[in-house]
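Can anyone check this?
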Amino acid sequence: MTDYVLVLYYSRNGSVANLAQQVARGIEGSGMEARLRTVPAISANCEATEPAVPEQGAPYATLEDLAGCSGLAPAGVFCSTSSLHGGQESTLLSMMTPLLHHGMVITGVPYSEQALLDTRSGGTPYGPTHVAGTDSDPSLNDHEISLARALGKRLATLARQLKA
């Protein structure tokens, strides 16, 4: 069986999907396979159903994806908000709580990552973030890309070390 880190995400407007892709690139740049997966859209309509295969983006996560992974992102968490004060850090911290209840080891982004000190947009020590603005622009800037890739690299390194 192949060792891989599962990058599992939900994205409404594409920003979180773009962060997930950069986390996956960081994992793969570290020499480990990244498996990018999403979940069906959230709906207030209880009768709503989604197609078995998404029309675009990553495939839906399966139980096999979860059971077979060596690491799981969001055991490193990431998010996107409309503004710098849109609750990025509190969102990341609240995402960590159920992961800790499942016994997961959480990794963040250390201040040794220069982009964390230089960013004027997204990025926290709790995980990479993106500021989409009021127009929900999913495009990531260089600092956001760098921090997402740094998290991916840390996840891959940690997964390899824990497996050994």
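Reply from J.R.: I decoded it. The helical segments are 15-29, 63-68, 88-101, 114-118, 142-163.
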